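Q: Hi! First time doing this. I have a protein sequence and I read that you can turn it into a structure. Is that right? Here it is:
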Amino acid sequence: MTDHLSYLVLGLGNGAVYAAIGLALVMTFKSSGVVNFATGAVALYTAYTYVLLRTGELMVPIPGLPKTVHLGGPLGVVPAMAIALVIAAVLGLLFYALIFRPMRNASVVAKAVASIGLMIVLQALIAQRVGTEIPLVEPIFPIETITIGDSRAPTDRMWLAGCVVGLAVVTTLVFRYTRFGMATEAAAESEKGAYLTGLSPDRIAFSNWALSSVLAGLGGILIAPLVTLNPVAYTMFIVPALAATLVGNFSSIWLTVIAGIAIGALQSEVTNLQNTFDWLPKTGMGEAIPLVLIMAFLVVRGRPLPDRGAVARPALGRAPRPDHVLLPVLVAIAAAVIALLVTGGSYRAAIITSMIFGIVALSQVVVTGYAGQVSLAQLTLAGVGAYSLSVLNTHLGVPFPFAPILAALGATVIGVVVGLPALRVRGLPLTVVTLALAVFLEAFWFRNPSLNGGVNGAPIDTPRIFGIDLGIGAGESYPRIAFGLLCLFTLTVVALGVAWLRRSPLGTDMLAVRANERSAAATGIDVSRTKLAAFAIGAFIAGLGGALLGYQQTLATAESFTVFLGISLFAVMYIAGITSITGGILAGLMAPGGLLYILVDRFLHAGEYYTLISGVLLIVSVMANPDGIASRLPKIPWPTLARRGRANTVAAGNDRAIAPSPSPAIDRSRAALAVDGVGVSYGAVVAAADVTFEVYPGEIVGLIGPNGAGKTTVIDAITGFAPSTGTVTLDGDEVSSLRPHVRGRRGLGRSFQDVELYDDLSVAENVTVGATRSRSDEPIETRVSSVLATLGITDLADAEVATLSQGHRQLVSVARVLAMSPIVALLDEPAAGLDSGESRWLGERLRMARDAGMSILMVDHDMDLVLSICDRIVVLDLGRVIATGTPDEIRTDAAVVRAYLGTPAETQSVEAQSVETEEVLS
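A: Yes, that's right. Below is the predicted 3D structure, encoded as structure tokens:
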């Protein structure tokens, strides 16, 4: 028992640093909405600055200048620490002023990607300035020990933990009781509100960035004598720190500090258990602690879909549709073959490396560019493919080409595991999960001698088929053209597959999920399955790339698949264009070891700065060009055949659109939609209570009421987006327990109050998402053309949704619902943004849909529209139904007049005259 306690005490040192970095993360997030992945790198930079100051040197962070400046003699602990912390504060101010202040209106994910670029810059800069030599750091705290039973434990860890706890106490008091702290909390809640009260969010953010950098730097300095000063290890402190911060929900200082210290202590105890029990793995167990903690947090806190008003819209740039593929592919293949034939040695090797990393980059295009899931584990999944290939090839004797395919399938399994958290979370927490998993797999598998070849790597046999040697060769024949052609063939197949995916219904679903998960679910898309499909496809592609890397190197080694190399490759992918196939190919050329890298190193002699340049360019890309370099390349007008079929179907759609059907009689024997006793509560707040009404086939029902009456909440409950009581029956079948996408597929379509469209898609593609799951027997393209013509927006079919006016966006939203041919269409304020003439025109189109047999439940504040086209109206007030009837009945209902419609002007005049008469008589 005493051994366990002593190991827990030993872990207090690392835990305190995690807590300090986590505390810094909370401060930056509170003040500017930035989850700063570079916080660990700031701690590293400050620690190195302190160590060099203790030797009388000051690090110069500018490439090309002397690496250090001699100060005349060593500095003591206090002055060295003070100067280092001042430098840390200056760095924090510069980072916010130059990067994150210009990005203050960007999404949280975009800011996080910029901070990843900053982390790459700092880590590469330190490696270039100080090299890999491990400096000796003199102790700061007294070197003493205490006795715990039969064991002894050093007190310096306890001193460090005490210092961090003290910092947490001071920070808590500052945030709770000082004007600065209250101003920070106010700015975190509402930047606009802060401006209105005379506060300056910029000044608050500058102060917090300086203080958070000081806290991170102090943690780095204090841990330096206890943990070997290593650039990569210090930078990766961010993973357990992020785990602690997630536990504190990026807001609670004490939960973050306690979680950070606990992670460090548990990691130390796991080391003790590894030494005690032979059956436990000897590596990777400590790295599993933050991963398990993150996963547990996401299971408890995560939600399958975002709440209303919390839809994430990461700025990842457009994902262009590859319409002309064949000719560019043939030209690219010819160019690649010629390049392989005319080059040799390192240049041919660089071309082959570019092809392999191009494959890995295309996996990132699928996961991030199409599905919007920012994964930092794609190179790790490639490593899974390489190590799996070694087992299949060398130990099990599986021949080529079956071995690389099975290895890629093995990576697919891991990729699905990586994607499982995406079922409950999105955006930044998922990025943290992928990073933690990459760290775990590198330690647990890639660096585990019992699972691979140890320091010598895991051997991989030469690929052969029908007796033909496809290996990379050795000696003067290295690298062989045959292997280059194998890589080119694989890259071509993968690129064509990704192009097909972008044009397929699954690819459109991915882009819809990336743009708006709630809206995607409403159109019948299984958001969870779509995300997992993206991770599975991306992992399979990455596994193929990893297998080729293994064949190229003839063995799998951990150094080829490190976490930091994977992050650097992510930076290159983002710079090249993470949303397009062209960007993926370009990323292969730009990857470390690729053709561009060789050219830069040979002719510009800047190879040692390549990672540093990549980090800088990543920051610039996020800030100024999220579409990547690929979007700036000149567009080549590849010849193509005229698309006559589409024009004909549009014309046919116009013909059908202007031919109204006779109005059918309303069948009231069976409701198309029956809502019985539906209620929605948020804690003690009752948003809707005992709401009951029916919508019959071929009927338009209006749902009206004052603002805050609960209209949208009722629609959310009916469609499954809000937890509710009561029952919802659709065409005779109860759907109350079904998930939103299942209700959509059953025939319950809806639009959204804030027009939640897929801004990454064109108008036609938006409508196609609905038409893909249409209950109509019409072909998809015909259905899309018909609906566009019905709403008069055929001429906007190829326009980007993001460029449309509010009125046109409303029409596209309605078109997407109508394209589903739902049993009941629930339209939430479809006339918002339309003028009176456009509103009447929309009403005529909705009548046409009703006459065709569709039932409609409509929420709108345009009472002329509601009273003119609705067959019946349901009125809500304070979450309860106060009236139901025909438009004429609702006009004269006293309760409705008082709650919503208001008293007619003539009545008010008569009442006023009566009051005046009474006053005169009195």
